[in-house]
From TrEMBL:
<feature type="binding site">
    <location>
        <position position="1253"/>
    </location>
    <ligand>
        <name>Zn(2+) 2</name>
    </ligand>
</feature>
<feature type="active site" description="Proton acceptor 2">
    <location>
        <position position="1250"/>
    </location>
</feature>
<dbReference type="GO" id="GO:0008237">
    <property type="term" value="F:metallopeptidase activity"/>
</dbReference>
<keyword id="KW-0479">Metal-binding</keyword>
<feature type="disulfide bond">
    <location>
        <begin position="794"/>
        <end position="812"/>
    </location>
</feature>
<feature type="binding site">
    <location>
        <position position="1277"/>
    </location>
    <ligand>
        <name>Zn(2+) 1</name>
    </ligand>
</feature>
<feature type="active site" description="Proton acceptor 1">
    <location>
        <position position="1250"/>
    </location>
</feature>
<keyword id="KW-0378">Hydrolase</keyword>
<dbReference type="GO" id="GO:0005654">
    <property type="term" value="C:nucleoplasm"/>
</dbReference>
<keyword id="KW-0645">Protease</keyword>
<feature type="disulfide bond">
    <location>
        <begin position="1406"/>
        <end position="1425"/>
    </location>
</feature>
<feature type="compositionally biased region" description="Basic and acidic residues">
    <location>
        <begin position="62"/>
        <end position="75"/>
    </location>
</feature>
<keyword id="KW-0732">Signal</keyword>
<keyword id="KW-0121">Carboxypeptidase</keyword>
<keyword id="KW-0408">Iron</keyword>
<feature type="binding site">
    <location>
        <position position="1249"/>
    </location>
    <ligand>
        <name>Zn(2+) 1</name>
    </ligand>
</feature>
<keyword id="KW-0862">Zinc</keyword>
């Protein structure tokens, strides 16, 4: 490389570190950081300020006194950091000028040939005594000291010596995990240090190698200079520009926060670049040049560097086993070789910042030229403007070429908002055209604009004179005529003549323009120009955006139709005989050249002509208002909001910062105008006289005037671009350019041309924005969104309250409200770097555009117009479709439904919230008082639910509501009440029976085997934890069978009679829900199945089971064979069902507890329990890890109140219900988890499961309360489990620092172990999850009779699970009742569904995250896929979660996965490697698959990691628990 000596390798960073002997721990997380090493030669705009020393003695010299240094030498080279004469002294002089002096290499160079390691060590020792010439770099609170500490020869020698002696890490330690992906570290790396030190970062633990003499000498030298005893060095070696280090944070707790940061650079020069972490200061990156061919030492105080951190998300905070902090010294050596053609993110950032600067300069030039022309349309200005346009376009093109060059082809990997800036700039528009076409294009634009700007017509009086001189320009002459004249013929003449001299004259140019624009679009990678135009709108596709605009229009169309009918009727009175009652309105009669806003004719047709009009124009003229005064008035409005400083940026940003997306600022400006225009405000500023009196009539007049501008505009704002989109797409061609225009004008606006139009004309060209190439739909959007903003600001100002008739939206004026000002300031300061939806959400709480606020605003007018049109017999619309205005009965019926639901949902939230709080109070503190409160509350809630159901819901003909409407869906939910629908007697009896069963279950005890006649109170064993622990850990078959049998005797057998009552009462209650049989409810099973909303659900589940059965049978056969080996033939029949007590679980529902006994390969387990304990994890930390996982996917994080209110560990001062559950308190903000979390792997996964429920709650919190539920119950259970599939991958656990590299890098055998363990947990569960409900469905519907309850249970257990009881079972017993969910009335099929669905979700998200390719399952197998950090996956998941239960679940599923049915494909794919293994294992050993049904029955069990509490009365969506 130029000027550099080519060494055999490049650029190395060396970091010395040290543990202090003191045991003090820095508890505060230190965020040292942010030195970035990049080649920065391209960014020559980055400069450092250099301070010069004033020639006074007042400032101590940096140069050291040699005498002092000699003294130091005689001492130990270990110095306290308070020593005055070393580096910290220099630091304290910061803020004063300090001389940098000449750069000198010290010590004096020796000949390179003669340098030996010994002499080098000597030289380094001598370094202590040498005169160091420090340079101080200061800027923006950054202060760095650096000095050249070695001459060329020494530096070269040191570098060469390090090259030959340094042993860099290899293998595992050369990989790093960033954003969920493994990357080779793009450099060589090694750490040396004092014995026993390790260093953790980015999930890697780096053991230090013992010092070499040379490194030790270097470390000592630097320690001396920096007055810090470093004890550790990290060496980074960069072979060339392809090697680098990304933005990173060195915020390990291990580092001593008091120690400075120091680094030594060797080799080829390469600059440091520091970037302030505050993004607003990011333009001010600082580079520290590295003197060529010498060794630089750089030292800075950690605190000073702190603000200079990167903005990357922090890596997992390392948990040190050694609490001693470190001191760190970093070093750098130089670079050779070719630079990486691709930019690092930092480089891209710098590039973008520079580009930003240039952009504003170039843009400004162009705007000045444009302004000159617009304000003074001379030939000269036109030329200058065209020139400026071309120059600007050329600049944009070169910027675009840079942005789209291969250098930045990794732009999609950049973090936000940088990625977004690239995304935006990758669309260059017409600037991307080749130069010739670009010139041609600009020429066309200039020509068209010029024709438009200079067009004039003859006055009406001379209209018959072919030789007249055209003298009337559009502004102001023609516009005034259009606004004020009532002469039908004059208006028609002006209307036509203007089109003759403007639009018709540019028709040919426009055809060419369209073709060039489409060409530019193609170069930019768009299908046509319409797609390019809507690209800035952040929609996933152009057609999607265009559709969303279309549906907004549909929302407001009914209002427009009312206005149109009213105005047409009034105009027909004003122009008798000219307009028929079903005609479109002639376009020239609406007070505007383009009929785009009709405000000019409003005063001629006020609804109440005698009531005051709020048009203040006259008053303004009278008071001598001029433009300046008007501006001051609006300025004053801003000031009143506390927005003084914002005004300037407000307007300038609206032009410059958001050139492509004007919606936001345009809408905001108009939003303010809505407030300014209220009568209240106009009175306040004296424009509305004291005689203006508020009245209904005045209000309607006011709203009418506003609607004539705002509502009349909407179809026009929509169709201008609709027309051009069609033109660009070729749906309208040069053959029918004018006819196509009028089709839209008539079809959408309901207007007709006053004179005949032909294809000689080009009427859209008579509107400025068309020849001027300005997209228009932004105005449409702005007109809708301004009302959304207005409503939000009015709510913030408390000037609008939907429940207070004194505060309607249209009267709201938030003048002087500082809350509004603060909200606006925040929104404005978001700038263009944030997606539109963010700003929108900040202001309104909504992410979508909606016309609801607008409709709300105009509601009184709408009601007035409906009545007026009805009375006048006006039809709505035009032509054949002109409809009668008779208000349809249907509509009022729908409104009634909505009104009722509004009431219902309000009450439901309130009562449900109170009930959930009572339940929470009881479950987290079991006292009699809390129980009574809860029961009382539940009874109240139940009474209310029942009363509403009886009196309002069942009597309402909701089935007549439109198919697919939200109201109908809600009523359908409500139409079935559940058990509470029964008579009070039956219901109370049912409650009692359930309560008794739960009590028996909850208090059941078993004597230990050694003491079978124990006192149960004294020494009886409880299910949790005693019996479960025995089942999980004992390998004594006698003990297992004893415990298994005794539990069933103590629980199930005792509730058999009660259970029979429960079935009978439940069915009575079920039928009460459907007295006339219209809902098809015959028993309680039908009610349970309604959640799945499908006629074929049972059959679908049966098919699913058939699909997974072969996998289950393989696992079953394998497990049986292993148990046979372990227990022998007296306990296990090698061809029969497995005895249920041998599977590690009371119900044999999940078998992972026996994994150690059956594991295929004798390898160490991947259990992280030990590591969690060792690293000091507690419950809170585990929940944080889960929360961070969601956050990194771009999903929501829990709020502070979650942490405050949840119960995450078992309290020791009171009794609580421990089983894990997630709670939604139905108020949209209170969500909690109750769990007695233990620090082990099972709970680690359970926490993710529960946090999945919370995430679902958070995502649908904004939906109506009746839709705040899972798409179906299985969805809810699958969310957390889906994420657990990623979280529990070895790669992910490794990235969390919970698995060693060895354990994480799984061999094929280890993967089989991993999969088998997973199968014992997930696959074993499937038949159990199925049988639990299959059994109960059959009891409810009578297929299983009371007399063979137990035999039927075992028949199913045998048939589906291949299990048998270990001893004889009889009809005295009731083994199904030994499982909590049976006696607690909790449907169970949701868990079966969830166990299948979670794999479907996992696979889908893995594909979205780019982590899994179904066509290549070998390279990155599904079971190792980790979606961590993928915003694509997060977004897709979020879309699903946000829908709650508002749509049928097949629709929701289809949107995410493309499939409408639940499929077993993904789970089979996931376990495919295990299937292969099991098949050959079984085949080789000739092990039979399946089981022979035995002659007599046996038993089974299981631990329920998560239990669901079933209370019929609780709001059905408050709780989401576990299986
Ligand atoms: Zn759950």
């Amino acid at each position: 490389m130029e000027g550099g000596r080519r060494m055999n390798g490049g650029w190395t960073r060396i970091a010395f570190n040290r543990f202090e002997t003191s045991a003090g721990i820095a508890t505060k997380r230190e965020s040292l950081r942010g030195i970035e090493h990049v080649q920065s030669t391209r960014y020559d705009g980055i400069r450092l300020r250099r301070h010069t020393r004033p020639g006074t003695g007042a400032v101590p010299s940096v140069d050291r006194d040699p005498t002092n240094l000699r003294k130091e030498r005689s001492q130990s080279h270990v110095h306290s950091s308070t020593t005055q004469d070393c580096w910290p002294t220099l630091k304290r002089k910061r803020g004063r000028a300090v001389d940098v002096g000449p750069i000198r290499a010290v010590p004096k160079a020796e000949e390179l040939d003669e340098v030996t390691e010994q002499s080098m060590v000597e030289a380094l020792r001598r370094l202590n005594g040498q005169d160091i010439h420090w340079q101080l770099k200061e800027a923006d609170n950054l202060s760095l000291s650096y000095a050249v500490v070695l001459g060329k020869q020494e530096a070269d020698f040191l570098f060469a010596s390090l090259e030959s002696s340094t042993q860099y890490y290899s293998g595992e330690l050369t990989q790093i995990r960033v954003y969920g992906k493994w990357h080779p570290i793009p450099r060589k790396q090694v750490a040396y240090g004092d014995t026993g030190l390790t260093y953790r970062f980015s999930g890697i633990t780096v053991p230090a190698k013992p010092w070499t003499p040379l490194l030790k000498a270097l470390c000592d030298a630097v320690s001396h200079i920096a007055c810090t005893e470093f004890n550790f060095v990290l060496i980074n070696r960069y072979k060339d520009g392809n090697d680098r280090i990304g933005e990173h944070r060195d915020d390990e707790k291990d580092l001593d926060p008091a120690a400075p940061i120091a680094s030594v650079s060797l080799g080829q020069p390469r600059d440091f670049v520091l970037r302030h972490q505050d993004s607003r200061k990011r333009q001010k990156a600082r580079s520290i040049p590295h003197e060529p061919e010498s060794a630089n030492l750089l030292v800075s105080d950690r605190e000073i560097l702190n603000p200079f951190v990167s903005r990357m998300p922090p890596e997992l905070e390392p948990v040190s086993q050694d609490p001693k902090p470190w001191k760190m010294l970093m070093g750098v050596t130089g670079i050779t070789g070719a630079p990486d053609p691709r930019a690092t993110e930092q480089e891209a950032q710098l590039f973008m910042d520079l580009l930003d600067g240039e952009y504003s300069i170039e843009c400004n030039k162009q705007m000045v030229a444009r302004w000159d022309y617009i304000t003074d349309a001379t030939e000269e200005h036109l030329e200058a403007m065209e020139e400026a346009n071309v120059a600007y376009a050329e600049f944009k093109k070169s910027a675009w070429q840079n942005v789209t060059s291969s250098e930045f082809d990794n732009w999609e990997t950049f973090s936000e908002p940088l990625r977004r800036r690239f995304q935006k700039l990758r669309v260059a528009g017409t600037s991307a055209l080749p130069s010739e076409e670009l010139l041609q294009f600009e020429g066309l634009l200039g020509e068209m604009e010029n024709i438009y700007a200079t067009a004039k017509i003859c006055p009406f009086e001379e209209s018959g004179n072919p030789d007249c001189t055209p003298t009337l320009p559009l502004e102001p002459a023609l516009e005034e005529i259009m606004a004020l004249s009532t002469n039908y013929d004059e208006l028609a003449y002006v209307w036509e003549a203007w089109r003759e001299v403007s639009g018709a004259k540019i028709r040919n140019q426009y055809v060419e323009y369209v073709s060039l624009l489409d060409q530019a679009a193609e170069i930019n990678g768009f299908e046509d120009a319409s797609a390019m135009w809507v690209a800035p709108y952040d929609s996933s596709s152009a057609s999607e955006f265009q559709e969303s605009i279309g549906s907004l229009w549909e929302e407001v169309r009914p209002l427009y139709l009312q206005l149109h009918a009213y105005v047409r009727n009034k105009l027909s009175e004003l122009y008798p005989g000219q307009i028929g009652p079903t005609d479109p309105i002639p376009a020239h009669l609406l007070g505007n050249m383009w009929a785009q806003q009709w405000g000019n004719i409003a005063s001629r047709m006020l609804p109440f002509p005698d009531a005051p009009d709020v048009d203040v124009t006259e008053e303004m003229l009278e008071q001598g208002y001029d433009a300046q005064r008007i501006f001051e008035l609006s300025e004053e409005f801003f000031t009143s909001l506390g927005l003084l400083e914002m005004t300037e940026t407000f307007w300038s940003q609206s032009m410059i910062e958001k050139p492509d997306d004007g919606r936001f600022h345009e809408a905001l400006g108009d939003t303010l105008a809505l407030s300014v225009g209220t009568p209240k405000h106009l009175q306040a500023v004296g424009l509305l006289g004291p005689d203006y009196e508020e009245s209904y009539e005045a209000d309607i007049n006011f709203l009418f005037g506003t609607a004539m501008d705002k509502v009349a505009f909407l179809p026009f704002g929509y169709l201008i671009d609709l027309y051009r989109w069609k033109l660009f797409k070729g749906e309208i061609t040069s053959e029918n350019m004018n006819a196509g225009w009028w089709e839209l004008r008539t079809g959408i606006q309901g207007l007709s041309p006053p004179v005949e139009r032909t294809e000689e004309h080009f009427d859209p060209g008579a509107k400025y924005h068309v020849p001027a190439n300005v997209p228009y739909v932004r105005y449409f959007v702005s007109f809708i969104v301004q009302f959304q903003f207005y409503e939000a600001l009015c709510r913030a100002a408390d000037e609008f309250d939907p429940d207070d008739p004194e505060k309607p939206l249209y009267k709201c004026d938030y003048y002087g409200n500082h809350d509004v000002g603060a909200l606006l300031t925040e929104a404005l300061s978001m700038g263009y770097s944030e997606p539109w939806a963010e700003a929108m959400e900040l202001l309104t709480g909504q992410r979508e555009m909606s016309a609801q606020s607008l409709l709300y605003y105009f509601q009184p007018l709408m009601e007035y117009l409906e009545q007026a049109n009805l009375e006048a017999g006006n039809c709505l619309g035009w032509g054949d479709e002109c409809l009668s205005t008779r208000k349809e009965i249907r509509q009022s019926f729908e409104e009634e439904a909505e009104e009722y639901l509004l009431y219902y949902e309000g009450e439901y939230s309130r009562r449900g919230n109170s009930n959930a709080l009572a339940a929470w109070a009881y479950q987290t503190d079991i006292t009699q008082e809390n129980l009574e409160n809860y029961v009382e509350n539940s009874l109240e809630l139940g009474a209310w639910l029942k009363a509403e159901w009886e009196t309002n819901i069942t009597s309402f003909p909701w089935e007549d509501l439109p198919e697919g409407s939200p109201s109908r869906r809600k009523f359908k939910f409500l139409s079935v009440l559940g058990a509470a629908a029964a008579s009070a007697e039956t219901y109370e009896e049912l409650q009692r029976v359930q309560g008794e069963m739960e009590t028996i279950y909850g208090t059941a005890r078993v004597c230990p085997m050694a003491e079978p006649d124990c006192d149960l109170e004294e020494s009886g064993l409880t299910l949790e934890p005693d019996l479960e622990l025995i089942l999980a850990t004992s390998t004594d078959p006698e003990e297992l069978l004893y415990v298994w049998d005794q539990w069933r005797a103590a629980s199930g057998a005792k509730v058999r009679t009660l259970f029979q009552d429960y079935i009978r009462l439940s069915n009575e209650a079920a039928v009460a829900n459907d007295p006339d049989g219209s809902l098809g409810i015959h028993d309680m099973g039908d009610i349970w199945l309604r959640n799945y909303d499908s006629e074929t659900f049972k059959d679908d589940i049966a098919v699913l089971w058939e699909n997974v059965k072969p996998l289950y049978e393989a696992v079953h056969a394998y497990t049986r064979a292993k148990l046979f080996e372990a227990y022998g033939p007296e306990h296990v029949d090698p061809e029969g069902p497995i005895p249920a007590h041998l599977l590690g679980n009371m119900w044999a529902q999940q078998w992972e507890n026996i994994f150690p006994m059956v594991k295929p390969f004798d390898l160490e387990d991947t259990d992280i329990t030990d590591e969690l304990v060792e690293q000091g994890y507690d419950a809170r930390r585990i929940f944080e890890v889960a929360d961070e996982f969601f956050r990194d996917l771009g999903l929501m994080v829990v709020s502070d109140s979650f942490w405050e209110n949840s119960m995450l560990t078992k309290p020791d001062d009171r009794e609580v219900v421990c089983h894990a559950s997630a709670w939604d308190f139905l108020d949209g903000q209170d969500f909690r988890i109750k769990m007695c979390t233990g620090v082990d792997m099972t709970d680690f996964i359970t926490v993710h499961h529960e946090m999945g429920h919370i995430q679902y709650f958070l995502q649908y919190a904004n939906l109506p309360v009746l839709f705040r539920d899972g798409a179906n119950n299985g969805f809810h259970e699958a969310v957390g489990d889906t994420l657990s599939l990623s979280v529990s991958t070895p790669g992910h656990l490794y990235s969390l620092g919970l698995l060693s590299p060895e354990a994480a890098n799984m061999s094929a055998e280890a993967q089989i172990n991993f999969l088998l363990r997973r199968a014992l947990e997930k696959v074993s569960f499937l038949p159990f999850g199925y049988v639990m409900d299959l059994y109960r469905w059959n009891i409810f519907n009578g297929s299983i009779s009371d007399t063979d309850l137990n035999a039927a249970w075992w028949a199913l257990r045998e048939e589906y699970q291949g299990l048998q009881a270990g001893n004889e079972r009889t009809e005295e017993m009731f083994d199904a009742g030994a499982k909590y969910h049976t006696i607690a009335n909790v449907p169970y099929i949701r868990y079966f569904v969830a166990h299948i669905l979670q794999f479907t979700f996992h696979k889908t998200l893995c594909i979205k995250a780019g982590q899994y390719d179904p066509d290549d399952p070998e390279t990155n197998p599904l079971h190792l896929c980790d979606i961590a950090g993928s915003s694509e996956a997060g977004l897709a998941f979020e879309e699903m979660l946000r829908k709650g239960s508002s749509e049928p679940w097949p629709d929701v599923l289809e949107e995410l996965t493309g499939e409408r049915t639940i499929s077993a494909d993904a789970i089979l794919e996931y376990f495919a490697p295990l299937t292969d293994f099991l098949e050959s294992f079984l085949k080789e050993r000739n092990i039979p698959i399946g089981w022979k049904i035995p002659t007599n029955g046996n038993t089974i069990g299981k631990k329920a990691p998560f239990e669901e509490k079933g209370n019929v009365l609780k709001p059905r969506n408050t709780l989401a628990n576990s299986e």
